[in-house]
Specification:
mainly alpha
Length: about 350
């Protein structure tokens, strides 16, 4: 593999993208959205002041950048190979010294750099959040690394599918479906799976004995224990499904920061706390109340920080699943792009 040929192919692909006026329109719309989001976030988190405001605004901006990258990247990468084949731009490149691996890798790098341009546009808004105070440098570093990797994975999925499928429109649609399965499908599967797996919980309670006038004896007489049984979902058996969600990976991989009361300061910590709280199994027996307890002991509720420290991170598992999926699609797409080819889909243009 030649680095000079690879970079030449990347520049060629980027040049074709930059010539498109729609590309600049998308960047302008993206910047306008970030202006509105940053302004609203500053107003929303202004009540927290200090660390809470800066960390909160920064996490919102990063999540919005990932959201827009998820929405736009499939369009930019889903027709990278078959689009050039339809436009008769692929065959002239294939007859040069460039190998199939170089062509596919160049398409991937070009799509990745195109997606990263949205992150570059967001840098001033991230600086605004950082300047507002309280953003840990480690949080900035980890969140940006995960954001860059997620954009690369989406680009790899789109380029791979564009090599596997012959029709550009169909490959873009399938890329959106795969990304939607990761972003939207995982919460749906988590919810339905947890609701399908249920367990019985017994709730016990007792109270004083009251006469017909509604008065108790002196001293009060305790009534018998009464129990009720009902079913609750077992989300602790399916919480791992959420590990492949890009937003969960971003939130769970970024170090969580908590205030003095043990509550998250930003959206990273809130998302991670919600996902990790699903790991806790429900209690099989509960005491709702006991009027006859002389000195009732208050139930100690774990703070989000305590629960976060007692549960297991899952971001590396989900990230590994995404990397394997992206690498497999790229390899498959490269095998379908390799020339000479014995068979081609009907109606495929080769020159």
């Amino acid at each position: 593999m030649s680095g000079s040929r690879l970079w030449t192919l990347v520049r060629l692909d980027l040049t074709q993208r930059v010539r498109n006026v729609a590309w600049y329109v998308m960047l302008g719309v993206f910047a306008a959205i970030l202006v509105v989001v940053t302004a609203l976030s500053l107003l929303s988190f202004s009540y927290a002041g200090g660390a809470g405001a800066g960390a909160g605004v920064y996490s919102v901006v990063v999540f919005v950048v990932l959201l827009l990258a998820v929405l736009v990247s499939p369009t930019l990468s889903g027709n990278a190979i078959n689009g050039d084949r339809d436009a008769a731009n692929l065959a002239p490149v294939q007859v040069t010294l460039a190998t199939t691996a170089e062509i596919v890798l160049a398409k991937f790098v070009a799509a990745w750099l195109t997606g990263l341009s949205f992150a570059v546009i967001a840098v001033p808004f991230m600086l605004v959040a950082a300047v507002s105070g309280g953003v840990d440098p480690l949080v900035v570093f980890v969140s940006l690394v995960v954001l860059i990797v997620e954009i690369a994975i989406i680009a790899a999925i789109g380029v791979g599918l564009s090599g596997i499928l012959a029709r550009p429109l169909f490959s873009v649609a399938v890329t959106y479906l795969v990304v939607a399965a990761l972003v939207i499908g995982t919460p749906i599967a988590f919810t339905l799976g947890g609701a399908a797996v249920r367990t019985e919980v017994t709730q016990s309670y007792r109270s004083y004995v009251y006469d017909e006038s509604g008065m108790t004896a002196n001293p009060p007489e305790c009534g018998p224990w009464e129990t009720t049984t009902y079913e609750v979902p077992r989300f602790d058996t399916v919480w791992w499904i959420l590990s492949a969600n890009p937003f969960v990976i971003l939130a769970d991989a970024t170090p969580a920061r908590f205030d003095a009361s043990g509550y998250p300061e930003d959206l990273f910590g809130n998302f991670s706390y919600l996902v990790r709280s699903a790991q806790i199994p429900p209690e099989s027996e509960r005491v709702s109340w006991d009027d006859c307890a002389r000195m009732p002991q208050p139930q100690q509720q774990l703070t989000p920080e305590q629960l976060y420290n007692q549960t297991t991170p899952s971001w590396f598992v989900g990230l590994a699943v995404q990397l394997v999926l992206a690498a497999a699609l790229l390899w498959w797409g490269g095998s379908r792009t390799r020339t000479p080819s014995r068979t081609l889909p009907p109606g495929t243009r080769i020159a």
